């Protein structure tokens, strides 16, 4: 209290104490996941699905089983994939992408013979990787029951892409005057067939 000019007393003005911003201090929970979290979750689902598809087959793999293995709810699954065929497409695409040549591999260095030999070794190594073999076995076993799987597995036209790539190499040699060919695409196709035939014979021994 303090005295006024008339001898009375007037109450002191109350000062407001600063109230800490509790909401700002407490970290927010929930909400949309970050891009990194979403990417990690997507990879976890694909890892679980890849294991189940390749070990149990397409028909025996259920969305429930994938969700349990990935430790997610079915609702979370359906936020990312429409159905089991869409999940299988994503699994096949990821396997194929991992079989492709990394950008730092110098496939086109040297003369034509060296290039084709290097390319053949790379393609055969990729085709004989355990995951690629498991995918092929699963497709062969399931095609009678699920004929559309063949279309899904070849959706990206990986063989066609390889033929175009090899044909491009041959066309470059034709333009340089180092090779005489009427149909580079057909020659590229025959090269792939011979490569796989000889490679599989060696692998079977």
The spatial strand order of the largest sheet comes to 1-2
| N-end to C-end Cα span | 104 Å
Kindly estimate the percentage of residues that lie in beta strands according to DSSP: under 5%
- Principal-axis shape equals elongated
Q: How many runs of DSSP E, i.e. beta strands?
A: 2
Portion of residues in helices?
55-70%
Query: How would you characterize the largest beta sheet?
Result: 2 strands, antiparallel
Calculate Rg over CA atoms.
31 Å
Low-confidence stretches: 15-29
Count, helices: 10
Structural domain tally: 2
Indicate the mean pLDDT: 79
Series of secondary-structure elements, N-terminal to C-terminal: EEHHHHHHHHHH
Structural class: mainly alpha
Q: What descriptive keywords fit this protein?
A:
two-stranded antiparallel ribbon, Arc Repressor Mutant, subunit A, mainly alpha, 2 domains, 205 residues, elongated
What do you see in this structure?
The protein has 205 residues and is an all-alpha fold. It folds into two domains: 65 residues, Homeodomain-like (Arc Repressor Mutant, subunit A); 93 residues, no CATH class. Helices cover 64% and strands 2% of the residues. A two-stranded antiparallel sheet has the order 1-2. Strand 1 and strand 2 form a beta hairpin. Helix 2 crosses helix 3 and helix 9 packs across helix 10. The chain starts with a strand and ends with a helix.
Summarize the structure in short.
With 205 residues, this protein is mainly α.
List the helices and strands and how they pair.
Blueprint: E1 2-3, E2 9-10, H1 22-25, H2 35-56, H3 63-70, H4 74-80, H5 84-99, H6 112-127, H7 130-142, H8 148-153, H9 158-175, H10 184-204
Antiparallel strand pairs: 1-2
